[in-house]
Structure formats: structure tokens, C-alpha cells
Amino acid sequence: MLLWEIDRPLVELTSLYGFERAARAYRASLAAVSGLVSLARDHNLLGEIRTKNSLYLAAGSSAADLLDEHRLRQRAGLPGDFLDHGRLLESYQIARAGAIVSSGAADADPLQLARGLLRLATMRGARLFDAEAIAFDPEGEAVTVGFEDGREITAKAVVLATGYVMPGIVHSKLQTVSSSWAIATTPQPQNIWKDGVLIWEDAKDYLYARTTPAGRIIIGGEDSEETIAPDARDRLIPEKSRQLVKRLAALWPSAETEVEHRWAGTFDTTSDGLPLIGPVPGAKGVYAAYGYGGNGITFSYLAAQLIGDLIAGGTSPLLDDFALDRDSGMAGH
Predict the structure, then answer these.
(1) How far is CA 233 from CA 106, 156, 162, 176, in A?
(2) CA separation for the pair 166, 152 (Å, rounded)
């Protein structure tokens, strides 16, 4: 799911950082999805990338918060229409208190997309090495990276895109590790909801759902910050899958709930829902590209732009917004 909508609602980000800064992050995220889609299409990358609308559902009995969110998004110039219960039911046959439907999202096969991007990079002269980096020395004229096999690579600029496994030189108080569970049904193209919109909820640990080109329904959630060790996380797959089947049946009663694939994964979130992108404090020449949350792929495209421009001598106010050592604004929230 390539969403531009950030895990923290615009209303919430505005209360943390003010409207202009919050809106800037949202607009940058919207542009990043568009840029990623264009990149994939311009270079004929595999990945079955498809433009999609997103459907942001009320999780409770009232849609008042969503209506406030919609009004603030309108002020920021972001796309979207508010649907009350009746319009949502009529348009999508989904029984919730309300929703915001927005253009500008997309979906893709992430593994194929990553492979396509790597092939494009190597065609442009990148070289790939498979080894674990265990030491970073930014003290000289260039940055030296030491690997577990005893080899070293020296570069003027090093970009860390290591997911939730942070090297020791990176320190962040904003990051939290979480687990998520997901299931994929058997193909049922005759049963999918209108336009295969990307579905998620106005909730902290939200349910998320999409469809595949073959007509499978993929639904995930049941997130946990307590169970993150791989073995313990994976032991919960059967129980979490049963819960997700129940939630699928409640969301979309016409779905066939036969599960063909089930899995779990570990990911990171930040306390404000924004990525960690930019220079690593105290490590000259080292940059971080940590997407995190529900927008990791979207934010990764944004990170490539921001860090590339920064290395080339440019700058952006987004680098302050996404700085690793920023004040999260979460005091009192």
C-alpha cells in the first residue's frame, strides 16, 4: 500500500507542530507517491504498480474527527471527499460511520519493485556487495564502513537504509519497534470492493486492506509493540490470522475467508508518524533514510530526493521536519 496519508492525522500533526509544518509533510508525501509511480512507469519497472484511491474509515461510532480532518486537508490543498454513513454505504457497501476517499495513492508488489530499482541502479553504475556492515568511521576525509568479512568500503557519503536495525552511530528517541500480522485470501476477483480502493482506519493500530491483481484480499493489523521477537511474533500467526478473518468478515461480509497465506513482520514507527531522514548527528558524511510507519516506501522515495539534493549542495525545510534529533513535540500529548 503506497499511501501518502501519514499515520498521524493532519489534525494531530498540526497540534504538535503547527499547520504549515504539518501540511508541508503531507504535501511532500503526496508528491512522493506520484514521483514513485512516475519513476516506475518511466523505466518500465516490474512491480504491478497501480494508481489507487484510498478509503480512510471511521473506526468508532462517530465520524466527527474525520470531518475535522477533511476540513483541514481541504485547507492544505490535499485531495479527498468526505462520505457520511449513507454515502459510504451507497458508494462502497461498507457500513461505517463515515470515511474520507482520496486520490493519489497506489499499490505495488514491493519485492518486484525493489528488484526493479536495484537493476536500474546497477545499470547506472552502482555495485552491489552482500555483507553485514558492523563498523562506521566518519572521522577521516571520507566515511569508512567495515564489514563482518573484514573488508571495507570508503565513500564520501554513506546512506543508511537499514530498516528497524539501527547501527550504533544512530541515536533516536522517536523510534518504536512493532509487529504486524497479515493474511491473504484465495483469489476472488468477483468479490472485491469497488475499485479495489486501499482501506485503512482512523485508529492507532489500524486495520489495513488491499487487493491484488489476481483478486486476493490482503488484510493486516493487530499490531503490537510488546511482541517483537521473531519467534514469539510468529507463534501468534494462527491466532492473529483468526482475528483478521473475523475483522475481514465484519468489514466486507461478501468476502470468501479461505486464507491461502498468512505471515507476520516487524517494522518501526515514530512517535509523530514522520520519517527520520537526513544527516546523522555527529557522523559527517553519514545520512539516514528511515521511512517507518505505514508510509515506508513513500518516505523512501522522499528520502532519496532529499538526501540526493543535500549531498549535491541543496537543502529543504523538510530536513528540519524529519531530522533525527528533532523535538517530537510529543510533550504533553
Answers:
(1) 28, 39, 20, 16
(2) 19
Indicate yes or no: pTM above 0.85. yes
54-89, pLDDT tens digit by residue? 999 999 999 999 999 999 999 999 999 999 999 999
Q: How many residues does the chain have?
A: 333
- DSSP conformational letter for 67: H
For residue 305, CA distances in Å to 63, 206, 298, 318 come to 36, 29, 11, 11
Q: Return the domain boundaries, the chain.
A: 50-107+175-270
Question: Phi-psi region for residue 178, left (φ > 0), alpha (ψ -120 to 50) or beta?
Answer: beta
Residue 187, classified by CB atoms within 10 Å of its CB into exposed (0-12), middle (13-18) or buried (19+), is: middle
Q: Which residues contact 42 (CB under 8 A, 6 or more apart)?
A: none
Architecture of domain 50-107+175-270: 2-Layer Sandwich (3.30)
CA 131 to chain CA mean position, Å:
26
Where do the H-state alpha helices sit in 8-63?
10-17, 19-42
Contact 152, 222 (CB under 8 A): no
DSSP 8-state class, residue 9:
-
